[in-house]
Each structure stands twice: as C-alpha cells, then as structure tokens.
C-alpha cells in the first residue's frame, strides 16, 4: 500500500498507473511547469509525483492563498498547467476539465534541472520561491529515512500542508522508504483527524510547535496504539511542552525526534531521538548523513547535497538558473547557533529580522511594509509573538491586528499591539529595534491582543 485517501487504499502499482496516466495526458514538454494548489488529496499527490517521470518543474502553492495571490503567482511563473484550482479568472488559461487549467499558448520555457519551487512562507508581496533540484530532494529523503529508520512498515499522515517543506518531506521520505501515507484534509485538532490517527495504522506523526501545544491534553488522555514516532520542527518548542512529550513518548515506548531545517535546504538538516538522549533537551540534534555544519561568528553554516539552486520570483528567474548544482560552499542559514563537543546543534536566535510562527518563516520587515499607511509603526517579534508598535492609542487595535495577521497567514492571537510614546531611532534615522524591544518590555500592560480563547490555527 502506498496511499490511503478518502478511505481508499491505493497500492504502489495503482499509484504508478495514475501517475503515468497524468504525465501522459498533461505533461512531457521539456522545461514545462505545472502549478499545483497543494490540497492534501490524491490528485495533488498524483500530479506532483508525475513530475518525477517527466522533465517538469512543479510550483506548489497554498490552496487557501486566495485569488489575488494565485493570479500574482500565475503571472510571475507562467505555468503551462494549473491543477487543483476550482476557478481561475485569467484570459490566458482555459479549463480543460474541472479544476484543471491549460495555458492557451505555450508558457515560457524553464530549466529542466529545477524540479520543485516552494514559495517562501509568510510572503505578503512578490511570490518569491526556493528552487530545488531532484538530486537534492532525493538526498534529503534518504537522509531522513536513515535517521528515522523508516521502512515498508512506516506510515505517516498529512498533519502538515503539502506546500510546506516539512509536510512535503514526510511524503518524500515515507514513499521513498516503501512505506505509506494517509492523506486527509482534516486538521490535526479535529475529531476526524484524531480518529484516523488512532485507527488508520499510523506509526509516525510530524508537527510544528503550535500543533503539539494544542494536542498535549489529547495525547495525555489517549495515545494511538500504533503510533511509534513523533517528529517536531519549524520553530522553538517550549521546554515544558518538550518535557511533557518526552515523558509521554517514553511511557509508550515511542520515539520523539527533534529536528531543524530550512526550505532552502529542502527542510531537514538535523534530527535526533530525544528519548535516547534526554540530556540534550533543547538541541535540534546531529546533522543528517552527508551534511556538514559549522559556525561563523555565531551563525550556523550548512553544506548539504540538498541546498537550493537559488531564489526565484518569475519565469525569467527560473531560466536564469544555472543548469546544475550550485557550488559546494556552506549555506548561511541566518540562524545563531552553537555546536557542542558531540556535534549536537543548539539554535540560540536569528541574525535577521525573521521569525518562525506556526512553522512559517515570517519577515517582520514585510509586515512593516504592509503597515506603511498606518502612521508611525514598527514591528518587533520572536518565535512566540509579533508585536505591532504604534505611537499613541488606537481605537481599531483588534481590527488592525486581525487584518495584519490574516495578511501574514497567521492567527490573530499570534500578534499584539503596543502603544509607545515614540519609535526610537538611531543617528541614521533607522528604527532602533533593541531600544524599541526594551521600551515595550518596560510597558507590559500597554499591549493589546486578541483574547487567547480566540486562538486558532492559521486560515
């Protein structure tokens, strides 16, 4: 068995037939591109896997990104085929079959070396993507299989979106290991998801911090009988939550893998089973096979066979990519870290104004740009909260927070608004963010936020 979707079991033979039929009907052109609205369903899996039997570049997009964002992405990348979109108001495309759109004239040719483009999460403007090649995807899948010891008995579930690098890597690694994947659109917090997790033979569950925070009590009350592995990545998990899951995993003789990764490196760089090394709580583990790490003035550097080809934001940018792999130098992650004597990596912070919320990389500068018409505004934040700083009181605080969070693809409870006397600036006129953070910290009761009982997963 390869995939279980909508209660239907699909064998590897049947999946292969579906993949080759899709490729025969819709793909095959050298350098062609297919854009997939990556729902967690069988059609997405088939359309995506078809790229591996043809010289096709796939652009995966969030199916909930909205019509304007979709149109911007289609205009930028000029795909030949658009899959999984119920409605596409674009004069250059015709609907060949329900949810399947074909360009009326040939799209721009690309480079056959680029297999996948993942749009950077948190983008509120130009749909910038990370370009990855097939050897890199395969190398990362094999590294994950090796570290997690996946095999034909391993079965995971789509607890994360397939347009998200971590979620996609779960598909890669389990199918490459000959295991299986339960495909469901249900959210991990829903009863239907939990019922499938408990009765569907699932052995592995992947998640980000927010998901594990919400599921603590449910796991404490009922541990699915077949579940043997938990894996976490995508931002810091609070130590007390980590300890609770460590205790649960040990009690049920399961493994609890803590991981670190970046989309630019096809997600996972390191991993380790905390149940085997509880003394390393707080670390993100050892590098996967074939990956080297180092630190330069505190910044984590990674040399990996799965490093991206580069950033792209258009069809022209794809064409400009060199045909082949980039140099074998170290990739600068932008994360601050230390590496201990045993090689374990410890993430300590970020160099740039980028944070991770709910597994998504969020640019604080992009949020500031979005708020440029709101007066004197600056944004600070961490992996746990983003703070919109304004001068003077705001009568529309809740509306501003909700609107900004929606634009960033986050729940409103991830943001707050703090009123300050003024925005501190350096001698050069730039926002003095350390001074602003200190100012906000000194005024804890000035923050306004959406009530915690309204906390929800990102739309």
Automatic annotation (TrEMBL):
SUPFAM superfamilies named in the record: Acetyl-CoA synthetase-like
InterPro entries for the chain: AMP-dep_synth/lig_dom (IPR000873), ANL_N_sf (IPR042099)
Claim: Ligase is one of the keywords in the record: yes
Residue span, AMP-dependent synthetase/ligase domain: 2-311
Any one Gene Ontology BP term: fatty acid metabolic process
Record key words, sorted: Ligase
Protein's name according to its UniProt entry: Acyl-CoA synthetase (AMP-forming)/AMP-acid ligase II
Gene3D superfamilies reported for this sequence: N-terminal domain of ligase-like
Molecular function per GO: medium-chain fatty acid-CoA ligase activity
UniProt record similarity statement: Belongs to the ATP-dependent AMP-binding enzyme family.
